[in-house]
Amino acid sequence: MTGTSSFRRAERMSGIEISEIVQLSEAAAALRAEGRDVVALSTGEPDFPTPPHVIAAAHAAAAAGQTRYTPTLGTPALRAAIAAAAGTVAGEVIVSTGAKQVLANAMLATLDPGDEVIMPAPCWTSYADIVTLAGGRPVVLPCPAAQGFKLRPEELARAITGRSRWLMLNSPSNPTGAIYSREELRALAEVLADHPQVMVLSDEIYRHLAFSPWTSMREAAPELTERLLIVDGVSKAYSMTGWRIGWGIGPAPMIRAMGAVQGQVTSGASSVSQAAALAALTGDQGLLDTRRAALRARRDRVVAALNALPGVTCAAPDGAFYAFPDITGAMERLGAESDAAFCKLVLDRAGLAIVPGRAFGLPGHARLSFAYSDADLDAGLDRLSAVLAPGPVAA
User: Fold this and answer.
1) How much is the pLDDT for 394?
2) Long-range contacts of 217-223 (CB under 8 A, 24+ apart)
3) Once rounded to an integer, what is the mean pLDDT over residues 283-308?
4) From CA 312, how far away is CA 139, in angstroms rounded?
5) With CB atoms 3.0 to 4.6 Å apart as the test, which of 285, 311, 357, 380 could cross-link to 330 if both were Cys?
6) Per-residue pLDDT tens for 207-228?
7) What angle do CA 357, 360, 362 make, to 5 degrees?
8) Is 11 exposed, middle or buried (0-12, 13-18, 19+ CB in 10 A)?
């Protein structure tokens, strides 16, 4: 049977594809399937296992019949636990299928066509695409290494217009690990005091993985509470990426609007996964300290190794589990015209998958995750060193 397909992409999908991070990870998997020896340091997924007591709680929930639909905003027990930890009430909490859905719910619930969302770059690859899908316009503000990859108050003030609807922050940051201090958050809040139409989304998914003092925007600027959405979840700190549980904490009217979106898209999050998340939040938290210490040790090894390479400079991240080195010298050394070309060359020559900085809005860098095992980190760094080793580089 022949004929012309009637498929047509919606205009809002223009330029939107699967994220470059996922594309690289899938390319690495495809090369492995072909028999290539490939090391991937491209994905933000801890190699630590989900804690045993969390898995046991999931088993118990399933065995007890907790396998049916859940309330759209989340199970009462999990919402209460999240609220208690945040010092708020359950009516200000929504549980979703991952933190990414929290972001999408918020944008779909609040943006009209052409509304602007200010986001400092480098930032997580999905932010801009989620805003675009919701009809908004991403306003990306480059924040180079010279300013610690962080937004300055005067830059925020210049970026705000009559169409500004949100400021999106991420601390600790993906991909840089940068942390906004209490004073830096206060300075941004003072700018926002003159612009009550601008809401603040504070993505704090890496808060338990801070190596330096960390403050929530909710604590630093309580006067913003009625227009502040905190995004968090269990994926990173508790090694529960596949369980797909994230949550938002915000004013009740915002949460209700986000719930209306979620109710028409996915309904409530998985019942068994919510039971597991409850166990993670209410169980022994000592494991967080142990894993954070392990990640700090990995950070120190990776940063030292990167700074020893020709053409590479890397500041130690203050949190999360990513290094974001400047590779402009290495690009020149290898004759790579862009960071994307450099990463492709490293994958082709050395079988190492890393992510170009352009994916995060700041070219000239690359992101390496140190959430991998020590063996994978050693292998990956050895491969990068071999490509950049002193002496003539093969064409």
Assistant:
1) 39
2) 217/169, 217/171, 217/185, 217/189, 218/86, 218/249, 219/182, 220/182, 220/185, 220/186, 220/189, 221/185, 221/186, 221/188, 221/189, 221/192, 223/189, 223/193
3) 97
4) 29
5) 311
6) 999 999 999 999 999 999 999 9
7) 55
8) exposed
Cα(165)–Cα(167) distance, rounded to whole angstroms?
7
The Cα 229–Cα 249 span in angstroms is 6
Q: Is the pTM of this model over 0.90?
A: yes
**For residue 109, what is the DSSP state?**
H
Q: What is the pLDDT of residues 162-195, one digit of tens each?
A: 999 999 999 999 999 999 999 999 999 999 999 9
Question: Under a CB-based contact definition with an 8 Å cutoff, are residues 121 and 145 in contact?
Answer: no
Mean pLDDT over 306-330 rounds to: 98
Q: Are 175 and 367 in contact (CB under 8 A)?
A: yes
How far, in Å, CA of 312 to CA of 304, rounded? 11
Region 330-344 average pLDDT: 95
The average confidence (pLDDT) of the chain is 95
Give me the domains of the chain, ranges plus CATH numbers. Answer: 11-49+286-388 (3.90.1150.10), 68-282 (3.40.640.10)
Strand, coil or helix: 244: coil
Query: Are 366 and 356 within 8 A, CB to CB?
Result: yes
- pLDDT band of residue 390 (cuts 50, 70, 90) is low
Composition of the chain by helix, strand, coil, percent to 5:
45, 15, 40
The rounded distance, in Å, linking the Cα atoms of 100 and 146 is: 29
* 74, amino acid identity: G
Q: What pLDDT, on the 0 to 100 scale, is given for residue 362?
A: 96
Between these two residues, 320 and 348, which has the higher pLDDT value?
320
Averaged pLDDT, 247-263? 98
Identify the CA nearest to 212 among candidates 319, 58, 342.
Answer: 319
User: Are 44 and 367 a contacting pair, CB within 8 Å?
Assistant: no
- Report yes or no: 271 and 70 within 8 Å, Cβ to Cβ: yes
Q: pLDDT confidence of 3, banded at 50, 70, 90?
A: low
Q: Are 346 and 352 in contact (CB under 8 A)?
A: yes
CA distances from 231 to 108, 204, 209, 218, 234 (A): 15, 6, 15, 11, 11
3-state secondary structure of 125: coil
